[in-house]
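tool_log.txt
---
The assistant was asked to compare two proteins side by side. It first ran the structure predictor on the initial sequence, then on the second. Raw inputs and outputs are pasted verbatim so the downstream comparison step can read them without reformatting.
(1)
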Amino acid sequence: MPPGAIVNIQGLSPVDDPEYRYKMPTVYGKIEGRGNGIKTVIPNICAVATSLHRSPAEVNKFFGCELGAQTKYDESTERAVVNGAHNDVVLGDMMHRYIEKFVLCPNCGLPESDYRFKGESIYHSCKACGAKEMLDMSHKLTTFILAQRKKEKNAAKAAEKERKKGDKADKDGDGGEKKKKKKDKEKKEKDSDDDKKKKKKDKDKKEKKKKSKKKEKTDENGDVADDLAKVEVTDDAVDDTGAMDLAVDATKKYLADNPEAKVDDIVEVVVNQQMASALKSFDKIFIYVKAVITPDFFKKKEIAKAAPVIMKITGGNDIMERHLISAIECICADKPSIFPVMIKQLFDEDALEEDTIFAWAGEGRSEYTVPSLDEETRAKLRAEAEPVVAWLQESDDDSDDSGD
């Protein structure tokens, strides 16, 4: 087999299916140097890692852990080095072990898992079957993964700190200009809102006039006027609310008729409903959440049951997770006290990342907030969630301290 040939992603058990859709290039090495300075360079480490949705540094470190050798990965040059001479057979065998332990879902065996972190523990979170299984925390590589996670979080915090400093400097040095721009923007938004209100008012008048004419006509002909009143154009016909309600009802019906439906089948139904209703892509999460979560969610354990599908729909994408929070805000608008319970359960089920919750908590009204949610209700929801956010921040700080 030529170096870098494309093969099926497999662990210790071979996968011979030619139609198997999970592929990767075979790993190969180039031996350089001699004597005590001999080493093996892995030219295609990035291609291999990308196909497995893992970092090149992590894959390279695994070789070192298993072979008892020093390793080095230079991110700027994408050069991976393992000390010692190791042929392609040995590297291939190590690759299968890595995939078995750190890539494949322990439940369904597919390479669809991402890492989820809880304190000093790492879990497989499978996007295919929804399973959550802890990694073998006794393996040396887990220490490296946790250290990398901490570095990334610290880098993100530092970047955010620098951004805030820059914003403050701009505000201090250019305050007058910014205030002027802000006022101009607010004026434009106000004018735009006034225009929209005026257009809506004109449209409502036309619709009422139209309805009145239809009513008079049907009364003259002796028809039932009440039937026409039922088909008047409502606000639902002007926005997406009606389409959303239809999609939610259709999803509810499917779930009621198919109580044993698989995760992928449910997701397919939700996506089809979203597309058929001409809704936006992120509305998928609104459709599903509104279809399955009720005020009695806690007793019925609805969030635990729905988590695998939610995770499949969001795909671990922070933008989709922000829309998930917006969907929960809508559900809890009339009863803000249940909002933090839902957020906590979604976090516990790995359907929400703590970073997403922090991002939501650190902002005011944003582009993710649905227009129908008034500011007073949004503020109540934010206040109710404060204890959960504080608990997550304390846990996060404790985790960072324990790793020092």
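(2)
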Amino acid sequence: MTHAVRPIRMEDADDISALLDWAWFPHRSEAGWRWLCRTPRSMAARAIPTGYVVEDRDGRAAGVFGLFVQDYSSRQGPLVGGTGHTLIVHPRIRGASAALIDAVLDQPNLFGVTVLHANDLAAPIYQRHGMVPYPADTHQMSLVWLTDPITLLAERAARGAKAKLDRDERPTQERFLPDRVFQTDLLHLSETVRALRPSDLDYRIDAFSEALSAEGRLMARRDAAAFRWRFANPDRTRDPALLAWMDGDSVGALLLAEVTKVTQVDAPTLEIIDLVALADCSGHAIPSLVSCLVRNAARLGCARVRLPVVTRELEGQLASVPGMHRRHGHDHGLAWIRPGNETLTTDWRLTPYDGEFGLCFRSPPRPAQRESAA
């Protein structure tokens, strides 16, 4: 059966929200959809749709594949790259995923498309469309620091209890959600590490972004406007943590992390969304930033710190951070590079920032009394 694919429109928000609920994906408000469409982008990037849908016989969106587009700098000049997210196809239009993925890969102005958070069921589907495991030798790996082992044992027991129930029975009681998840600020910083707030996102971030670009790396846009946009997500229940490694008054490295809670029976996790440094200070700045984050995790009510996308270079730089565990699973990282652009990837120090991380995670839901007070 041939499925007609069209770009996402704002009026699809209700239908897509129904699909998210059906698939047990995190809810996104209408304001959240508008925020996702307003990422700072060049005119070339804005010309690319933010995703595609397939309609059922009643004209309702019954399949969706989101596309997050970012501007990149490279040795060849400005480029546009994309990452796919939220691939959902309802059984009433079974088979439509192929048309949705093709629509994204057929965008001629994208140098490449990644899916860095694929689940074990979807990964083979992407590979049938020519997407390959990426990064080449670490696509199955994540790095984890356990910061609250007792809560993690309780989490494992709660998951085991859930597994004994009908798979279609969704848990309703929120577990492992202390108030400090929403209240605690970062402490235990070092002399060179500073926690940044939205008001700190100024010319120093722009200078850092320009210095990274001058090194010739393939790099997604990381100027002050891009970080301010990430802080503005209306569906997030607390601000992300943004740590800067400072060389005097200059930024030498950045770490962006968010508190997430995958399901009602999962403990909060600090997910590292970005971890990037200038070449001359990366060897000591990268482990210093992660060490500061790990020291704060338990105070934030988080049972683990996780870096979900890892290169060999990052793995080596973080080996000195106490408590690091390597976790291997399915092929969660995949990429498709447009023919003729393959040499670009030699300059690509991939981080979760290049993918859908920070866009599609479930934030810890605020307790009802705190929500009403807010």
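---
observation on (2): The CA atoms of residues 287 and 318 lie 5 Å apart. The longest helix spans residues 282-297.
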